[in-house]
TrEMBL record, chain A:
Coiled coil: none
UniProt xrefs under Gene3D superfamilies: Jelly Rolls
Matching InterPro entries: cAMP-dep_PK_reg_su-like, cNMP-bd_CS, cNMP-bd_dom, cNMP-bd_dom_sf, RmlC-like_jellyroll
Domain of life: Bacteria
Family matches, as SUPFAM superfamilies: cAMP-binding domain-like (SSF51206)
Short name of any one Pfam family annotated for the protein: cNMP_binding
Domain Cyclic nucleotide-binding: 13-82
Official protein name in the record: Cyclic nucleotide-binding domain-containing protein
Organism (species): Rhodohalobacter sulfatireducens
Lineage of producing organism: Bacteria, Pseudomonadati, Balneolota, Balneolia, Balneolales
């Protein structure tokens, strides 16, 4: 547990979080490992966790009609996988597939949601931090949508 | 003046199809001697006889002056005709034009090369240059983003560079199927993962203007100095020598004063609809 506390406190996502909040989060955390090709999250399944990837890469995929699995993003060392646990109806919107062996810290989203309801300071801190990630991914998605490498019309 | 305006004839010696819509011509000079010297980042005006003239960056090794390489994407009338030229056909070439990449300014520093799509072509000579003069530079990083795995240019070189121990190469695509094992996402996403020493780094960026804008923003966020970010701007080059004004951007003639500029000189123009 001490080790998890150190890892989480040094991670940019949790940097400068007060000790009490960090302790609450550590209480919802565990080390997890996935083998290559494991499905870490599956579209439609209950979203009750999120992951901090320590090593390896995860492909976010969606099934396209007649196109098979399309990878729309990849996440790797240091990145956060999953925010659907924060928003009703708490279901994954994409598949998350391990491209190689993945070591991560899994955080129990359901447990954290309850703690955030009880402790709004913690809830606000977490939402601020997740908002930054959501903003970055939104900007990246907008660039993808522009299809900047396509042939200009 | 005459030398700048009169094309030299070159013969197509080889044609390489890089992707379904992009090809490279390997050319041999046949007029006025057998040599063609250029600086990384310069471009030529290429004349398809009886069709028209287009600006294309030089994409070969600057230390090889007996052959000239141009990678072309089929997008307009001239390039559509250019794609049908065969080995042995002749082209007219004026150039080299433009200032090129400031390789001297990057000596003794980490160099970060960021390419988007066909923007890898104008950057390939600078990568050759860094590798030919490896001791003059600290770390070399190449970040390349393109639309999909089948649009990746220069696969052979990318594989070769990736296998080197003294260079980091990352390739990302905007979307891919399961057979692609590399990163997926926009090129700017790779920057935070890779940049570690912004105070002693120089970035060379080429790609669609929107990509360059967002890349510069990401580099600035990582504490790069504006004057250490260089972008290559290619817009409507026509005469190549700053006379006709087609490529004028504010106070600059892109063909003569550029195409390479540091970000501090260009930033006010990058988000303008029109100048």
């Amino acid at each position: 547990m001490e080790n998890l506390e150190k890892i989480l406190s040094e991670h940019p996502f949790f940097r400068d979080l007060d000790e009490d909040s960090l302790n609450l989060i550590v209480g919802c955390a565990s080390n997890v490992r996935f083998e290559k090709d494991d499905m870490i999250i599956r579209e439609g399944d209950k979203a009750d966790k999120f992951y901090i990837i320590r090593e390896g890469s995860v492909a976010l995929e969606i099934q396209g009609p007649g196109k098979g699995k399309i990878t729309i993003d990849t996440l790797s060392d240091g990145e956060i996988l999953g925010w659907s646990w924060l928003f009703p109806p708490y279901h994954w919107r994409f598949d998350g597939h391990a491209q190689d062996r993945v070591r991560a810290i899994g955080l129990d989203g359901k447990c954290l949601r309850e703690k955030c309801e009880e402790n709004h300071d913690l809830g606000y801190e977490l939402l601020k931090r997740f908002s930054q990630i959501i903003d970055q991914r939104l900007q990246a998605t907008r660039l993808q949508l522009l299809d900047i490498y396509g042939i200009p019309s | 003046m005459k030398g700048s305006m009169q094309p030299r004839r070159f013969r197509i010696d080889k044609v390489y199809w890089e992707t379904d819509d992009t090809f490279t011509h390997e050319l041999i000079p046949i007029d006025e001697g057998r040599f063609f010297n250029f600086h990384p980042g310069q471009f030529n005006m290429i004349y398809i006889f009886g069709v028209g003239e287009i600006p294309i960056s030089i994409c070969g090794d600057p230390d090889i002056n007996t052959r000239l390489y141009h990678t072309t994407r089929v997008v307009g009338d001239v390039t559509k005709r250019k794609q049908h030229l065969k080995v042995g056909d002749l082209l007219g070439i004026r150039g080299p034009f433009g200032n090129g990449w400031p390789v001297e300014k990057a000596k003794g520093r980490d160099v970060v090369v960021i390419a988007g799509g066909i923007g890898l072509a104008p950057l390939r000579p600078i990568i050759y240059h860094f590798l030919n003069h490896r001791d003059d530079y600290e770390s070399i990083t190449l970040i390349y983003g393109t639309r999909s795995p089948d649009k990746i240019l220069y696969r052979k070189e990318l594989e070769e560079w990736s296998s080197r121990l003294d260079m980091d190469v990352s390739v990302t695509v905007d979307a891919a199927g399961r057979t692609w094992k590399g990163p997926v996402g926009v090129v700017t996403k790779l920057i935070p993962r890779i940049i570690s020493n912004p105070d002693n780094s120089t970035a060379f960026v080429c790609g669609p203007e929107i990509m360059m804008r967002f890349t510069a923003v990401e580099l600035l966020k990582r504490n790069f100095a504006e004057q250490n970010i260089f972008l290559s701007m290619e817009r409507n080059h026509k005469c190549g020598i700053g006379f006709c004004g087609h490529c004028q951007l504010g106070s600059y003639f892109l063909c003569k004063d550029g195409p390479v500029f540091s970000y501090d000189k260009l930033k006010s123009y990058l988000s303008l609809k029109e100048v």
